[in-house]
Design brief:
Distance between the termini of chain B: 22 Å
Number of helices of chain B: 12
Radius of gyration of chain B: 24 Å
CATH class of the largest domain in chain A: Alpha Beta
CATH superfamily of the largest domain in chain A: P-loop containing nucleotide triphosphate hydrolases
Number of helices of chain A: 8
Order of helices and strands of chain B: HHHHHHHHHHHH
Structural class of chain B: mainly alpha
CATH topology of the largest domain in chain A: Rossmann fold
Oligomer: heterodimer
Strand order of the largest sheet of chain A: 6-7-8-3-9-10
Radius of gyration of chain A: 24 Å
Largest interface: A-B, 33 and 25 residues
CATH architecture of the largest domain in chain B: Orthogonal Bundle
CATH topology of the largest domain in chain B: MetI-like fold
Shape of chain A: elongated
Shape of chain B: globular
Order of helices and strands of chain A: EEEHEEEHHHEHEHEEHHEEEEEEEEEEEE
């Protein structure tokens, strides 16, 4: 159990700045997900928490104790690697008990703890195997078991599911969620998959270009993104963003239609609207008209990629099955109160 | 691959024939060595080109072992080769690990220098080496050979070890350190066991290089007492005759340690020890 705190943390490799002014408080027992595109610095941040990367500037502390100079072995933090990093010459049981072996704990204690962890992860039958005789999912479990056995103050996960196939990924995601609920431990999880982020996190930290874009609960990020990057990064399918001009009492769309939005700032240049907040409407009630380009029937939903006059491509997601074919004309309406507005810099503008 | 072979029996036969031909070609000198070693002296010239002598003897072997200095040469060679292999591999392992894992000032320069040392023909530096060894008072001693061989073998052995260390995922060390290891502990408990094939290969390489080296052994050793094996072979050549049978018998015996060494390390060389470490 631990409270992790990053204050003004920076990371530089020579002249290259990887992370800038990271301030983050991770509460005891909280599940934090660091999310962002490749190269945004999320893994580096995790490795700095682990102690595997030096902190160029700022302070990292656990429960109020400065950790910058403390080597990884003394931080009492467990990490699950993307590559699993199982010791290939040790069997599953020894892999899982290796930290206790290093601490010099006796064989009986080790054996009972490893057996307990193996049982929770469904690995009991495999403890005598070498990693090379395991499947990807089993290796993943062993890697998690190695962390659980230690009973650490915090768990770190570095894209732990990205080497698994889709079905296994969903299964392991649930497993990690259950694990967090059972252990009630502080967990920091790095991923580039926003579905993992939204489903697992208590709070999500969105990173881009080494800078924290926004910190908030999954719903916060979905409903009130701080800027265009977060708006487009969180949520699937991606939010539509279209150019608009400020007008009296609202904004004017590219096709000349005035969308009534009271109290709009004159700085507005773009409007974001999620595909699920666009509706196919009667021609009378619609604000936009276009032609369906591609229609994806997913069963539960229908995704319509439309070319809209004066505006460009838009994606509409409708619940259930919609009998629409490519080339059909579509009339689209924006659900009231669901539009997001951004200024030139991409910053979200709040409506008064 | 397997289906390809089954589909083309002709290609398969051709391939096997090519391999067989190459093997015969490569192993024929060895065969000739053994053949002469077991041929009685009086038949060496009369049956010179026969593929197998009409009479078979192990007399050459017993003479070589019991009536010449062969055992001493053999012992000297063993001392020199084993010490060289052990020390050079130890140093190369340390250097290779550093090159593989750390970034330090002058790393590229050191690597370039080490490559440079491999470019000179040994003949060029015989004279200076001789002077240096003479000045150190090490002429006619086995330690002079050990010193020189170590120096010559370290660069290549280092590159060899570096490539083995490069093949071990860095995540494994990180994981070991997260699990509570110091860097040294992670080296000993995780990296070292995985590097055994590499250490075996490097040991074998340096050992055989030192075992068969003749140029420096010839220059630096004059006394019979500290002659190594390849130089000792030349003692079978006297002013008036060459004792072919004994020379070949000694040659066959000299092959034994190299062969044993490779049989011993072969299983390490073929199996990929790191498989299953990461991903899959």
């Amino acid at each position: 159990m631990a409270r992790l705190e990053l204050t003004g943390v920076e990371k530089r490799y020579g002249a290259v700045e990887v992370l800038r002014d990271v301030n983050l408080r991770i509460n005891d027992g909280e599940f934090i997900v660091l999310v962002g595109p490749s190269g945004c610095g999320k893994s580096t941040l995790l490795r700095m928490i682990a102690g595997l990367e030096e902190i160029s500037e700022g302070e990292f502390s656990i429960d109020g104790k400065r950790m910058n100079e403390v080597p990884p072995r003394d931080r009492d933090i467990a990490m699950v690697f993307q590559s699993y990093a199982l010791y290939p010459h040790m069997d599953v049981a020894r892999n899982m008990g290796f930290s206790m072996e290093i601490r010099g704990e006796g064989t009986p204690a080790r054996r009972s703890k490893v057996a307990a962890a193996a049982a929770t992860l469904g690995l009991s039958a495999l403890t005598a195997r070498l990693p090379k005789a395991l499947s990807g999912g089993q290796r993943q479990r062993v890697a998690m078991g190695r962390a659980i056995v230690r009973d650490p103050r915090a768990f770190l996960f570095d894209e732990p599911l990205s080497n698994l196939d889709a079905a296994l990924r969903v299964e392991m995601r649930l497993e990690i969620a259950r694990l967090h609920r059972r252990l009630d431990a502080t967990m920091v999880y790095v991923t580039h998959d926003q579905v993992e982020a939204l489903t697992l996190a208590d709070r999500i930290v969105v990173l881009n270009g080494g800078i924290i874009q926004q910190v908030g609960t999954p719903l916060d990020l979905y409903e009130t993104p701080a800027n265009r990057f977060v708006a487009q990064f969180i949520g699937s399918p991606t939010m539509n963003v279209i150019a608009v001009t400020p007008a009296e009492g609202g904004v004017r769309l590219g096709n000349g239609v005035l969308l009534a939005l009271p109290g709009v700032s004159i700085d507005v240049t773009e409007l974001g609207i999620r595909p699920e907040h666009l509706d196919l409407a009667d021609p009378a009630a619609s604000t936009m008209t276009g032609i369906a380009d591609v229609v994806e029937h997913l069963g539960s939903d229908t995704n319509i990629y439309a070319q809209v006059e004066g505006i460009g491509p838009l994606m509409v997601r409708q619940h259930g099955h919609v009998a629409l074919r490519p080339g059909d004309p579509v009339d689209i309406a924006i659900q009231p109160g669901k539009a997001h507005l951004f200024d030139t810099a991409g910053k979200a503008l709040r409506q008064a | 691959m397997a289906t390809w072979q089954r589909a083309n029996p002709l290609m398969r036969t051709g391939k096997l024939a090519a391999i067989a031909f190459y093997l015969c070609f490569a192993l024929f000198p060895l065969y000739w060595l053994i053949k002469i070693a077991v041929t009685p002296d009086r038949l060496i010239y009369t049956e010179g080109t026969a593929l197998w002598p009409s009479e078979f003897t192990i007399g050459n072997f017993t003479t070589v072992i019991w009536q010449t200095d062969f055992l001493r040469f053999f012992g000297n060679s063993l001392i020199v080769s084993l010490s060289t292999a052990a020390i050079a591999t130890l140093i190369a392992a340390g250097a290779g690990y550093a090159f593989s894992r750390f970034d330090f000032r002058g790393k590229r320069l050191v690597i370039a220098l080490m490559l440079l040392t491999q470019m000179f023909p040994l003949l060029m530096i015989i004279a200076p080496i001789y002077r240096i060894i003479a000045a150190m008072g090490l002429l006619n001693s086995l330690s002079s050979l050990i010193l020189v061989y170590i120096a010559f073998n370290i660069p290549f052995a280092t590159f060899l070890m570096q490539s083995f260390f490069d093949g071990i995922p860095k995540d494994l060390e990180d994981a070991a350190m997260m699990d509570g290891c110091t860097r040294f502990q992670s080296l000993r408990k995780v990296i070292l066991p995985l590097t055994l094939p590499g250490l075996g290969a490097t040991l074998g390489f340096v050992f055989t290089a030192a075992w068969s080296e003749v140029l420096f052994a010839l220059m630096l050793i004059k006394s019979n007492a500290s002659m190594t094996f390849p130089v000792g072979l030349l003692t079978f050549v006297s002013k008036f005759s060459v004792d072919w049978g004994q020379m070949m018998a000694a040659g066959v015996l000299a092959l034994v340690p190299s062969c044993m060494f490779f049989i011993f390390i072969q299983r390490y060389l073929v199996q990929g020890l790191t498989s299953g470490a990461v991903k899959g």
